[in-house]
Design goal:
Elements (H helix, E strand, L loop, with lengths): L1 E3 L4 E6 L2 E6 L9 H16 L5 E6 L4 E3 L4 H5 L3 H20 L4 E5 L2 E3 L1 H8 L2 E5 L3 E3 L16 H6 L1 H10 L3 E2 H7 L4 E3 L4 H13 L3 H14 L4 H16 L2 H11 L10
Parallel strand pairs: 3-4, 4-6, 5-7, 6-8, 7-9, 8-11
Antiparallel strand pairs: 1-2, 2-3, 9-10
Length: 262
């Protein structure tokens, strides 16, 4: 059941899952209004205590997201371009701060800004028909939503330089080999595979998942000593939760834990 009407996305809640579908013909391009709607839906999902996982996908089977709205980009002055980039970066950083797992369900093209937003998700499950890339170089610009930074962190400097500087597309299997996506499945199995992945996440403690996400995303930008200390602080934080007590007790009692997110 739809929770709120938007012009550029479809936002639904099904049981404990919030589903955000980018919905702009022909390739679900990231217009400025779409980004504002995506941000609004993410805030709603974050604040809803009944939501445990967020899924982002694209309408149709042609594209998850083909990238930015090119006429919008063309019209930007240099100063406007900086603000446009910073605005998109804030949205993707916000996605990393949300203490709920975000899963990108990817079918078809995942290019430019689309790949940048997919990389800001915590997990990426791709159809074997998916295609990835940062084609901005072919338009005389560079990625502005993290494509020079997150891509490097995910696949390493040499491959990130190649993908960014050549602007060529890679297929889903190559994306998996590089570590850009978590799983590749036949197109007809994408919904099922994503649902199964989401259910595994929902079986875990929401409180512990949120702290785990925080530890990984913050720690990766620290030197090792600071990151390890931060991990210890997060370990102490989750040890104080009811879910930690329940999980440990359930293990000793040889039963499945019943987590409450507290």
């Amino acid at each position: 059941m739809a929770q709120k009407e938007y012009a550029n996305i479809i936002y639904e809640k099904k049981e404990r899952v919030a589903i955000i579908t980018l919905n702009r013909p022909k390739v679900n391009a990231l217009s400025i209004p779409l980004l504002a709607e995506l941000y609004d839906a993410l805030k709603d999902a974050e604040s809803d205590e009944n939501i445990g996982v967020i899924v982002i996908t694209g309408a149709g089977d042609r594209a998850f997201c083909g990238g930015a709205d090119i006429p919008e980009v063309q019209a930007l002055s240099a100063i406007e371009a900086r603000d446009y980039s910073l605005n998109g970066q804030e949205y993707t950083r916000y996605m990393e701060r949300i203490r709920k797992p975000i899963v990108a369900k990817i079918n078809g093209f995942c290019l430019g800004g689309g790949q940048e937003f997919a990389m800001a998700c915590d997990f990426r499950i791709a159809s074997d028909r998916a295609r990835f890339g940062q084609p901005e170089i072919n338009l005389g610009v560079i990625p502005g939503y993290g494509g020079t930074q997150r891509l490097t962190r995910l696949v390493g400097k040499a491959k990130a330089m190649e993908i960014d500087m050549l602007g060529e597309q890679i297929d889903a299997n190559e994306a998996y080999r590089l570590g850009l996506v978590n799983k590749v499945v036949p197109a007809q199995d994408l919904d099922k595979a994503t649902d199964e992945f989401v259910q595994k996440l929902l079986s875990k403690s929401p409180a512990v998942l949120g702290t785990m996400k925080l530890a990984i995303n913050k720690g990766i930008d620290m030197d090792l000593d600071r990151a390890l200390y931060y991990e210890a602080e997060c370990f102490a934080l989750v040890k104080a939760t009811e879910d930690s007590e329940e999980g440990l007790r359930a293990f000793l009692e040889k039963r499945e834990p019943k987590f409450k997110g507290k």
